[in-house]
Amino acid sequence: MKAWSSFMTTPPTLPTGPVPHPALDYEELRAEGLRLLGRLAGRQWTDFNVHDPGITILEQLCYALTDLAYRTNHPVADLLAGGAAPGPPGPAEILTGDPVTRADLRKLVLDITGIGEAWVEAPSEPELACYYHPGSRELRLGADSLESDMQPVELRGLHRVLIQTTDQLSGNAAFEQVAARLHQSRLLAEDFELARFAPCEVGVSATIEIGPSHDATGLFAEILERVEDYLTPPARLLTLAEARARRLDELFNGPSYVLRLSAFA
């Protein structure tokens, strides 16, 4: 009898009546957009068919409005506790974001095991400079001395990434891992130019006087390590106590999957 009553239970269905809010009505939003287009740009814009790119943009906007209205129509408690863990999300989920600055990109590279140091900077000067000529509205490889307002065209969106590897990661493998990590978070119209720091031999001449009770071999190794750290200092991570002393918006500024480097000094 219990199984029969469960079988006769009415299954859930989607409502077919009016939507509870106008922002959830896609067709009405599209029709209102067409009415506004006809009133504001009817003399210049007369093609309102589905193949027109402007109509495609309008339909995407209407969909975005309905999606936003659907999400905000949920109870606030459900919106705050939308993750798998109970309770509202923590600072690591609220304050972090995608890498958008060169400092964020540097954190991505430093998060790779085997990378000792990394710098992200503007690209080097191109071999062939390109200039914009306002008179002819052309891009040329050479400069014209007769046009005083001519300006060189600078490349935007290209980042030069310099990496310093350690014994844990070889050269080619380092380039492959760095390129893969950066391109996973690459923004539109951006690219990367990878380069490795060229070794520079440094000689230190010093006379050191030690006592008879000191270990000469251990002391010599410690001196070399300190000189190396001074000449090529690695990225220093903050301790837990130092990180807690900072503001949360500074501590969690940057990509969420490199939080251990988001507060490096």
Question: What features would you describe in this structure?
Answer:
The protein has helices at 2-7, 26-41, 53-72, 76-80, 91-94, 102-110, 171-184, 216-231, 240-244, 248-251, and strands spanning 115-121, 131-133, 138-140, 151-152, 158-165, 191-196. The protein is of the alpha+beta class. The chain has a domain at 112-234. The strands form two sheets. Strands 1-5-6 form a three-stranded mixed β-sheet. A three-stranded antiparallel β-sheet has the order 3-2-4, with no helix packed on it. Helix 7 links the parallel strand 5 (158-165) and strand 6. Helix 2 packs across helix 3. The N and C termini lie far apart (70 Å). Residues 259-265 have low confidence and may be disordered.
Please give a handful of descriptors for the protein shown.
three-stranded mixed beta sheet; three-stranded antiparallel beta sheet; flat; 265 residues; alpha+beta
Record the SSE blueprint.
Blueprint (H helix, E strand, L loop, with lengths): L1 H6 L18 H16 L11 H20 L3 H5 L10 H4 L7 H9 L4 E7 L9 E3 L4 E3 L10 E2 L5 E8 L5 H14 L6 E6 L19 H16 L8 H5 L3 H4 L14
Parallel strand pairs: 5-6
Antiparallel strand pairs: 1-5, 2-3, 2-4
The chain-level structural class is alpha+beta
Largest sheet geometry: 3 strands, mixed
Shape: flat
Helix content: 25-40%
Topology, number of strands: 6
Radius of gyration, in angstroms, nearest whole number: 30 Å
Number of helices: 10
Cα separation of the termini: 70 Å
Please tell me the overall pLDDT: 80
Strand content: 5-15%
Which strands sit side by side, in order, in the main sheet? 1-5-6
SSE order, as H and E?
A: HHHHHHEEEEEHEHHH
| Unreliable stretches covering 5 or more consecutive residues | 259-265
